Amino acid sequence: MDVLTTWINNYRRAWESNDPEHIRMLFTDDAEYRTEPYAEPWRGQGEIVERWLEAKDAPGEAVFEWKTIVSSPDLGVIEGTTVYAARETTYSNLWVVRFAPDGRATEFTEWWMDEAEA
C-alpha cells in the first residue's frame, strides 16, 4: 500500500474516532494543517488536535469517497466527495498532503466546495 492510501485510511480512522492519538499520529510535530488554501494554518500536533476536536464530526456522520490524482513518497493529491446525509450537504474536495519520510504529513491543505453552491 502506498503512503497516500495508508495516510488516507488513517485519516478516516481519526475522522471516525476523534481520538487525539489517532489525529496526532497523522502529523509531524511541526506540521501545518490548512482548512482552506489561504487560511492561517493550524501549527503543530497540539493545535491540530485541539482545532480538529472543536470542529469534529460525529462518527458515521459523513461518507467519504476519494481517488488519487498524484501519489509519490513525499506528495499526495486526492479528489474526494464528502456526503453528510443528515445535513443534505455534499462537498467536493481536493486535498494536498506533503509527507515526511516516515509517512506522516508535514503539510495538509484542503480545498472544498459545497456542491449546492456550485
Overview of this protein structure:
- By secondary structure, the chain is an alpha+beta fold.
- Helices cover about 25% and strands about 45% of the residues.
- The radius of gyration is 14 Å and the shape is globular.
- The mean pLDDT is about 95.
- It has a 6-stranded mixed beta sheet, with helices on one face.
Write the layout of secondary structure elements.
Blueprint: H1 3-17, H2 20-24, E1 27-34, E2 42-43, H3 44-54, E3 63-72, E4 75-84, E5 89-99, E6 105-114
Parallel strand pairs: 1-6
Antiparallel strand pairs: 1-2, 3-4, 4-5, 5-6
For the record, the CATH architecture stands as Roll
The tally of strands reads: 6
Would you list the SSEs in sequence order as H and E? HHEEHEEEE
Strand content: 35-45%
Q: Number of helical segments? A: 3
| Strand line-up of the largest beta sheet | 2-1-6-5-4-3
For the report, how would you describe the main beta sheet? 6 strands, mixed
Keywords:
alpha+beta; six-stranded mixed sheet; 3 helices; 6 strands; 26% helix
Task: Write a short abstract of this structure.
Helix content is about 25%, strand content about 45%. The chain has about 120 residues and is of the alpha+beta class.
